[in-house]
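Tutorial, part two.
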Amino acid sequence: MDLYLFRLINGLALQGLWLDTLGIFFAGYFEFVLLTCLFLFLIVNWRKYWPMVIEATAAAVLARLVIVNFIRLILPRLRPFVENNVNLLLSSGESSFPSGHAAFYFAIATVVFFHNKKAGIAFLAVAFLISLARVFVGIHWPSDILAGAAVGIFSGWLINVVSKSYLLKKAP
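Running the prediction step on this input gives:
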């Protein structure tokens, strides 16, 4: 199933310059647009959303630097382009499972969602586009993305629960 979905999505690469350019942009560069939007959102709403900044940072670090790296240590997986004939538009090193990008951006998007539903839905959509584009350009399997998204959503949820339960609890 993983190979079938990968070929279905990656098979669209190298079919047209505009689609390839869009795929490369979302897989490799749109993350900077997302982080800039988050930064601007925070500047405008700093007082209201300062807990979100701390939670988003903690969730992203937990997801990408702790959980993903631990999983990659015990379950290393080659990227699709290593042993398969793929339409490769970008290259990347290290293990592919789970996707660090998916974990990182879904963690941030989940925290944003808990604080602002409309902005959170937009961030979740962008996290999905970034993740899907990474399959399109040939550097992740669909299951890498699914596992990364699960790690990110779990991390965002966990940090939000811990924050609400213990850190931001108001004194009686």
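The two ends are 54 Å apart (CA to CA). In part three we will examine how such features are distributed along the chain.
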